[in-house]
Amino acid sequence: MIFKRLILGVFLITGMLFNAADGSAAEKKAKVGFVYVGPIGDHGWSYQHNAGRLAIARTFSDKVKTTYVESVPYGADATRVITKLARSGHDLIFTTSFGYMNPTLKIAKRFPKVKFEHATGYKRSKNLATYSGRFYEGRHVVGLIAGKMTKSNILGYVASFPIPEVIRGINSTIIAARSVNPKIKIKVVWVSTWFDPGKEADAAKALIAQGADVILQHTDSPAPLQQAQKNKVWAVGQASDMVNFGPKAQLTAIIDDWNAYYINRTKAMLDGTWSSQDTWGGFKSGMVKMAPYNKAIPSDVVAMAEKAKDGIIAGTVHPFTGPIKDQSGKIVIPAGKMADDGMLLGMNFYVEGVDGTIPK
Amino acid sequence: MSELFVPVLLTIITASTPLVFAAAGEVVVEKSGVLNLGVEGMMIVGAVIAFAVGVKTESAALAIISGAAGGMLTAFIFGFLTLRLLANQVATGLALTIFGLGLSALIGHGFVGKTFSGLPKIGVPFLEQIPVLGPLLFVHDILVYLSVIAVFLITYVFNKTRLGLIIRAVGENHHAAHSIGYSIVWVRMGCILFGGSMAGLGGAYLSLAYTPLWVEGMTAGRGWIALALVVFASWRAWRAFFGAYLFGGITIIQLHAQGFGVDIASQFLSMLPYLATIVVLVLISNNSSRMMLNAPADLGKSFHASD
User: Fold this and answer.
1) May I ask the CATH class of domain B2-294?
2) ipTM score of the complex?
3) Hey, is the C-beta of B217 within 8 angstroms of any chain A C-beta?
4) Residue ranges for chain A with pLDDT beneath 70
């Protein structure tokens, strides 16, 4: 790991030099910086955030200069990268992964004039806003489809880290799946990484070998989907439309669309109307979208999925509507009640139907 | 029982093969006295070139050869800088990794989202019919066989041949080897190029067979693991082979254990392959004189005839 650190050091030094070099040229343009957890070519999470950055660059080509640093590990490295961006004259900095929460908060305090936005976190301050997508809405739709499509009644879930965001997604999927098929179980394999195509594929293989016939993922590479294609089982794309990697296997994909949000926030920064806030957008605001459905899905299942999506937009359907029991059978959301955002954001328990326990 | 174990063991072979290639190649490089830390960079260049050629030509053979050539070319840069220009090996190796990651992203730009059909499995006639062992050992793609053959060959060359002795002499004491008339630069260059092509094959295995796709940074640190395995193996190819399978094995078994709902923290399970490597490292390196005996004495030192 020491080598990785060294490399990062070298990267940072070169980064500093570049920043110093272009500082004068871009004097009049506002600067917007992005920190990504994976490479922009991951075809998943970071890829979509970068699409949002490009949307800013297109919309404000004469007023804004955008920069980014990719594949930034959590911890001390993140702190250094974000500090560097803040110090080199950026006006607005988006840190786009959960693990950047504490470094972003700390650095936001030290640079009160710089505006920060942290994705998927919950800590805010005067110059630190947060934003995220209600991906669990997408996972509800996915769960309904998976529930109808599985033959083995076992869903396989390749998960990254046991944080509320990921646990919420697993729960949303199983609740929806069991609403159409009560016999369903879900197996979860944690890979402790957001991006490692090989390991993600291995996890998918393990799940398929254990009988899962729909592979869901909360990691960023298309490798699990590709394994599903190879083994002739179903899968769901993550963050972007991954249909190229598994044209037969991909049932649909949950697409993160940050473009509109990033353009709005950059505009607010330019107008001087930016303020710290929390945004949690779903289907309604267009931050979460579904990729085209696989032709192999029967039309009544598609209709059901679309109906659920429309219901979520209209506010008549909520993925977490009681009665919902946790793994021990205790009712956590009473009948007729819906989980509020506070409960969703802090979700740290599995609901009924999930195999195994949450790593502590 | 066998239908449960065979897929697990097959996955272990897949997970270990890229490490076997990269680590065995680096054993040869380090035996000649050169420390090339650019394994990750050579692997990923091999991965992207193999994939690009595979997609363009649809030929598995051409893709594999190009992958090896890609790794070799990247290694040549390292060899030229460290042997001819006498650049520091550690710094050059690190730079090579950064360069390789960047270059591969550039080359691979147009190939993100493309797919390759994967390598065909080749069954050994008759042997593949044996129950359990047949599908396990005798139905693989060409690269898996090649990785085993390479380890055998390297072990044989080092133990039984004159070439092996020359490489070892160059790595142990380059002045002595020079004074009896061996060209240090050419021997080392040969080893560096060989190591590069092996790392390239490891990368090619990733992008052609393991996960037949291209995404940036898809080696995800396997080059560094391979480097650690070389020390773990105390510079012996066959030990590097077992090290790679130990690492790959524990990685895969912990994923399967999770699927079965084994109640152990997944973070702990994820740590296991690294922990096992460290434990073995401690065990074999507690005898420091024996460790010194195994490590090439001139490892990492630049050579110039005038020194």
Assistant:
1) mainly alpha
2) 0.84
3) yes
4) 1-27, 360
